[in-house]
Automatic annotation (TrEMBL):
Keywords, ordered alphabetically: Secreted, Signal
InterPro entries: 6-blade_b-propeller_TolB-like (IPR011042), MRJP/yellow-related (IPR017996)
Name used for this protein in its record: L-dopachrome tautomerase yellow-f2-like
Keyword Signal attached: yes
Gene name of the record: LOC113509028
Secreted as UniProt keyword: yes
Pfam families the record matches: MRJP
Location(s) in or outside the cell: Secreted
Family of this protein: Belongs to the major royal jelly protein family.
A GO CC term assigned to this protein in UniProt: extracellular region
Length: 473
């Protein structure tokens, strides 16, 4: 009898301790979260501000502490706040106008607070993380995490392909890999210091062979691709498609959010050209936004381009939207492949709903579902492309004002959706709290995400994937 009483207790005691369950959001599972970013550079952990790269081995010339802010000088030449002191919400002697002069950080190797991740993409066992240089103090703009090694919640970043070669790139927002084992990106060539951007080199398309980790292409964009001096600051995303399974016949599509255009690059021709259209512009009625506790007006134009499946004619439906908009548009890839597109070939697909401003979106061909990173609603949503695009056909998959604040990237790969959220508006207009988690990476299987939602597939075979029935994706 006593055995029966105590047996369950013995069994419970024998169960190993389960690993910590991180905070998931809706149907998305948290993979990583960071309060602030750290690096593993040549085996040396970089956990705090560093004056210069040669400080890695143990120098101690910190410019400022990772969790402190520095302030301008008063008219009498005295600092508003002493170096090294941490800024609290209500310090005893609170300075009246706390500001940071980013130009005071020129030449600093690592300013931890300035490292805000923007892009995420999983390729094999590597997770690529981009940190565009919107301030000084970013050691490497393109980095990765080895998923076969890193298992903690806040792993350090490793410069890609290594620290020495990573210095050839100035600033990258997002990457995209193709089915031919290549990693594509746009190096904007610009350090985006507020009110004082530094144009270091002409923007270029950069491609790495992921099998050898060698750069195999650097194509400098032409002057006709860049209509204004500030155009480089708007080259925030790239989409790559392969025609007819021929790796030598690739096209890259670059969205220009600042001067409202799409740049097309042909690998076979090694040439680029630019398209303009009214649909690339922002919608002023969608410009009022409130994200991460900040109210502001933005005017970002065409932001994300998602490729539909290739048809029998080799053409794809290319879906796109301005970030400041609630609408979705499309045009044939074959139209964009021409130097002068027919202006009437661009179509209005529909309206996603109020406050549905979106950064990136991605298409999952087997299910014919589009996924959206909605900054306006702190959310990830979906739409089955067989249905009209309307608010009633949009499915809400994950939403959280803190942990999904400003989803900056979304990518569909290997039947999974990967998302980065980074609280960017708080970084721009206020300040991040370095004692709280600010940056998150999430993932989920497509089938799990859309199950039981309005995006769940109807019965019937997928014409692009014969034998694959939607009910069993």
């Amino acid at each position: 009898m006593s055995y029966l009483i105590f047996a369950p207790l013995m069994i419970l005691l024998a169960v190993p301790v389960q690993p910590q369950r991180f905070n998931n959001v809706g149907k998305l599972t948290e993979v990583f979260a960071w309060k602030q970013m750290t690096y593993d550079i040549n085996g040396i952990m970089v956990l705090r501000d560093r004056f210069a790269e040669d400080d890695l081995a143990g120098g101690d010339r910190d410019r400022r502490s990772a969790d402190g802010l520095y302030f301008n000088y008063n008219d009498d030449g005295k600092k508003n706040w002493e170096e090294g002191q941490i800024w609290h919400d209500s310090p005893t002697e609170q300075p009246t106008t706390p500001t940071v002069d980013p130009n005071d950080e020129i030449g600093r190797f690592f300013v931890q607070y300035n490292n805000v991740p923007m892009g995420v993409e999983k390729v094999g066992n590597r997770l690529f993380i981009t940190i565009p240089r919107r301030r000084y103090g970013i050691p490497a703009t393109l980095n990765y995490i080895d998923l076969s090694v890193q298992g903690g919640r806040s792993p350090p970043l490793t410069p890609y392909p290594d620290m020495a070669r990573s210095t050839s790139m100035v600033s990258v927002y997002r990457t995209r890999a193709d089915e031919c084992g290549r990693l594509w990106m746009v190096d904007t060539g610009t350090i985006e210091i507020p009110n004082n951007p530094r144009y270091m080199q002409t923007p270029a398309i950069v491609v790495y062979d992921l099998r050898t980790d060698r750069q195999i292409l650097r194509y400098t964009l032409k002057s006709t691709d860049l209509p204004a001096r500030n155009t480089p600051t708007g080259l925030a995303s790239i989409t790559v498609v392969i025609k007819n399974g021929d790796c030598s016949n690739a096209y890259a599509y670059i969205a220009d959010v600042v001067t409202y255009g799409i740049i097309v690059y042909s690998l076979k021709e090694n040439d680029s050209w630019r398209h303009s259209h009214n649909y690339f512009h922002f919608n002023p009625t969608a410009g009022n936004m409130r994200v991460a506790g900040q109210s502001f007006q933005w005017n970002d134009g065409v932001f994300s381009i998602a490729a539909g499946p290739e048809g029998p004619d080799g053409c794809r439906q290319m879906y796109f939207h301005p970030m400041v908009s609630h609408q979705e548009f499309s045009v044939s890839s074959c139209e964009l492949e021409t130097r002068t597109a027919n202006q009437t070939a661009f179509q209005v697909i529909g309206h996603r709903g109020t406050n549905s401003q979106s950064t990136m979106h991605g298409y999952h061909a087997p299910s014919r579902v589009m996924f959206f990173a909605e900054v306006g609603r702190d959310a990830v949503s979906c739409w089955h492309t067989d249905k009209p695009l309307a608010p009633g056909n949009m499915g809400m998959l994950a939403q959280d004002q803190l942990r999904m604040s400003y989803p900056s990237d979304l990518h569909v790969t290997d039947d999974e959706v990967w998302v980065m959220a980074n609280s960017l508006p708080r970084f721009i207009y206020s300040r991040l709290n370095p004692n709280q988690y600010n940056f998150f990476v999430y993932r989920a299987k497509v089938a799990d995400l859309i199950a039981g939602t309005v995006c769940a597939a109807p019965y019937g075979p997928n014409p692009f994937y014969p034998g694959n029935f939607f009910m069993n994706i």
